[in-house]
């Protein structure tokens, strides 16, 4: 995956599991749990660019779902 060396699969799975209740997703908390908050801005921008598949400048719900489902099919 394009996140090799940047994100730990287990951290992402744990973060996905922590927001299973509908309406409980908090992107700031999620990014902290997966370790993105502690990364340099350039690394965060790289992750953003990977997630923003249509290069719209935004991460739409479907793009986020696709990313999360790589780690957990029910995400």
Describe, in plain words, how this protein is organized in 3D:
The chain is mainly α and 75 residues long. The chain is built from 4 helices and no strands. The chain has helices at residues 9-18, 27-33, 41-51, 61-69. The longest helix has 11 residues, at 41-51. It is globular, with a radius of gyration of 12 Å.
In short:
It holds the Pfam family EF-hand_6. By secondary structure, the protein is mainly α.
Domain count, please report it. Answer: 1
Give average pLDDT, whole number.
81
Question: Could you tell me how far the N terminus lies from the C terminus, measured between alpha carbons in angstroms?
Answer: 17 Å
Sheet of most strands: none
Q: How would you spell out the order of helices and strands?
A: HHHH
Helix/strand layout:
Elements: H1 9-18, H2 27-33, H3 41-51, H4 61-69
Give short descriptive properties of this protein.
75 residues, mainly alpha, 0% strand
